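BUG-594 | component: ligand-complex export | severity: low

The export step for adenosine-5'-triphosphate jobs runs without errors, but we want the raw record kept on the ticket for reference. Input record follows.
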Amino acid sequence: MTGAGALLREIRRLGGGRRLARLAVAGVVAAGTELTGLALLGCATWLLVTAADQPPISALTVAIVGVRTFAIARGLGRYLDRLVSHDAALRVLADVRTAVFAAMARPAREPDTSPDEGDRLARLVEDVDSVQDVLLRCLLPAGVTVLAGGVTLAVTGAVLPAAVLPLAVGLIVVGVLLPVAAFGAARRAADGLASARAAVVGAAVDVSHGAADLIATGAVAAAVAVAAAEADRVAAVERRAGRVAAAVGGVAAVVPGLTAAGVALVAAPAVAAGETSGAYAAVVILLALGKVEAAGVLPDAATRYAHLRGALDRVLAVLAPPTAAPAVPARATGAPAPAVVAGTPAPPVDVRLRGVRARYADDRAPALDGIDLDVGPGRRVALVGPSGSGKSTVLAVIAGTVVPEAGSVGVAGAAPDPETAWRQVSGVMADAHVFHASVGENVSLGRPGVDDDAARAALRTAGLPGWADALDRVVGEDGGQLSGGERQRLLLARALAVPPPVLLLDEPTEGLDPAAAAEVLRAVLAAVPRAAVVVAAHQLAVVADADEIVVLDAGRVLERGDHAGLLAQQGWYAREWAAQVASAEGYRAHATTG
Ligand SMILES: Nc1ncnc2c1ncn2[C@@H]1O[C@H](COP(=O)(O)OP(=O)(O)OP(=O)(O)O)[C@@H](O)[C@H]1O
């Protein structure tokens, strides 16, 4: 149960030793409650067997008091057990929930490669609740079985040493072997069912969404047969899991009886030899029956753990502390970089990349390989190149949200830390979000110093002068009520409202025609004369004025230089420039004649 071990370490990291101590107390109380029940069973058994010989009542007084005491204590113990265990688990849950939300709010060091971020977040919220189930229904019963089992074995050993072996065997079968079998079967079933169910859903969706095409091509029967075969596969996996669960349940039901019979077998000669009394032998037999029966919750706990394991792993993965950036020196001092506030000129900063290699997944080619870049204050560098060549990844590396696996990144001489990089680096990134709020709120984002006047000025600079008088206009979910060009310019205004020392612009003028785009970008750059600027763009005309233009291809630098120099090189840039000019002229000619 590596996941369970990691969970306990995480609980300690988040809540300190007190959380683990509370869980341990919960385990002791639960074990105490179970032992009180067993003591009641033992006392009552001794009383009944001894009373059959009609001894003087004084000989039974202690046992009678014991039965009453244990009966009352068991009820109280159960109440206390629920109280303490739920209190401990809910405190842990609160720690985990807070930490998960904090981790989700933190900019990702590792890029997210999941296909559906929204689905992942929704599932994560449910996953956090699984922590409670793992604690209360899996780990606690296991701890109780170990504690209460140990005490029962000790008591049995004191009364009748020969009975320890059959009891231990019964406990190992029900408390160890059956849970291991149940866990393995449930894990195989869960793994198999996930893919089998996905295949059924996929086949069913193909049949329903593609019905018209299937009918038109006479392929309905074949498609339905595929869906039916996938459904059969699900049924087969479920049947297999059901058979194992039934076998485990069956064995768990007979082992307590067999254990009691085994204890009875060794007890009979001991009673005959006068080593112990019949009453004590009966106590030991019933204790074995009761304890092994109680351990019968463990196969169920193991099955439940197999189902919760995936959720637990996902939560632990989110909670894992971010790993340090490889090959990048840490920030020289612990002092945070000064916050940039509107109206306060931020100190200039330079950006330096050396031999940067970055990769999104181990089994994929590097998205960047051997990238060198120098962007001093006031310098404008453009990144161009085919789609997927790595432009956005260079910006993400500078922002610190993608950590390179080799090479170094320096922003003002230190590796960018995603937690604090926003103080020095901001702009319009590929995944920037427009909030379902007003224009003014989207521009200011609640930052101190960005009042309405600052927001208006930023909107004008970003090419949205008409919006300066519409700060209250609500823009819809993720800017749904905006055109692509308006959305980008709103994001530009947000970046300009607090001009950063390093301005990163990913397709900032997407959706505008090249002439308007170049004009907007010129105005934006004029507003941040001392910023180090890196712009990624597809339209070459928009960035032709840049001090340096870097052409990327498959994560490597293909060409670099200024516009005139690159045209002279007669390479990718020159060809793309000619193609874009021809296409713009063709468009203009078409528009004029049309
Ligand atoms: N989050 C991600 N997870 C996995 N792979 C990614 C991710 N983002 C980018 N990639 C891959 O990294 C490579 C570089 O992508 P990047 O977005 O940096 O290129 P780009 O030049 O900005 O493309 P575009 O011009 O289309 O925006 C591509 O192969 C892309 O598929």
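Assignee comment: Attached the raw record above. Residues 2-319 form a domain with the ABC transporter transmembrane region fold fold (CATH 1.20.1560.10).
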